[in-house]
C-alpha cells in the first residue's frame, strides 16, 4: 500500500490576550472536524504575561503554544520588525499549508507580511472591521492585512462592504460569524460566579447580591495621558458614588496610575480594585453586573451579546469608552453599548444619566 502523506498543518498565530478568545474557537473547530485538521499554534510574545496567559490558556482549553517567539514589548516599528525577523525562520522550518492570523495587533500584520512574501497562503479571521481612523495603529494593521490575505473571514455584514470598497475580490470574502462570541457561549456554563470572585478579593459577603458596575480600562488613548486618565478616574469615582464599581486593573493601567500619582483617586469606599482576572472570572462578573464600562472592543462585543440574550446570561447594559464606530456591529443588535441611562463622552468618561 502506498503510504499516506500527512497534510501540512495550518499555523495559527496569536500575539495578545484578545487573540486567545478568537483562536480558541478556531482551534476547537479545526480539531473537531472530520477528519481533524492539523494545526500548530504560535505565540509571538507581543503581550505575554505568564500568569495572565496561563489563566486564559487553561480557561479557554487552548493547548500551550507549540512555538513562542518571545518578542516582548517595544515601539510599533521595532515590535513589528522583530516579529517578522523571528517568524521567517520558523515559517521556513514549519512549512505550513497556510498561516492563520486573527484580529489587528502588530503580530497579525507582521506574520501575514512574512507569509505572503514566502508564498504561503494567509487567512485573516475578523477581516474587514474598520474604525475609519488611521491614527489608530490597529486600523493600519487591519487595512494592510486584508490587502494581502488570500481568505478573509468576516464577523459582521458591514465588513464585506468595507472590503469590496477597498478592492478585495468577493470570492475571497466569507462571512463566518464572530468567533469571540462562539467562545463566550461555549464558556458561559463554566463562568465563575461573581460572588466567588468578589469574596476572594475581600468584598462584603453580600456584595454580589447588590447591583454593581464592572469596569475595564487599558487603551493607550485613555491611560497614557495623565489629563485624560485623571478625567476618567474622576468619572469612575462619580459612578461609584451611586453604583459600586468593580475594577479588574490591567497591568498597563496600574503602572500609569502609579506613574502619574493618581492612586488616591481610587480610594473610594464603593470602588473595588482587583488584579487581572481570568476569562471565566470576567464572564461571571459581566453576567452579574448591572452595568459594564469598558474601552475593550472584545468586552464591548461580549457585553452586548450577553445583554441581548440576558434571559440566559443575566447581563445588563454596557457603555463604551472608545469610539463606537470602531465596532459598528455592536450598535446594530439587541443589547448594544450605550443604552439609555448611560452617557459616553468623547474623552472616554462616562456618567449615569
What does this structure look like?
With 353 residues, this protein is α/β, with parallel strands linked by helices. It has 2 domains: 10-186, Rossmann fold (3-Layer(aba) Sandwich); 191-352, Rossmann fold (3-Layer(aba) Sandwich). The chain is built from 14 helices and 14 strands. Mean pLDDT is 85; it is low at 308-315 and 329-353.
Summarize the structure.
This protein is of the alpha/beta class.
Summarize the amount of helix as a percent range.
Answer: 40-55%
CATH class of the largest domain: Alpha Beta
The strand order across the widest sheet is 3-2-1-4-5-6-7
Biggest β-sheet description: 7 strands, parallel
- Do you know the CATH architecture of the largest domain? 3-Layer(aba) Sandwich
Structural class: alpha/beta
Q: How much beta, percentage-wise?
A: 15-25%
Q: Categorize the overall geometry.
A: globular
Computed CA radius of gyration, to the nearest angstrom: 21 Å
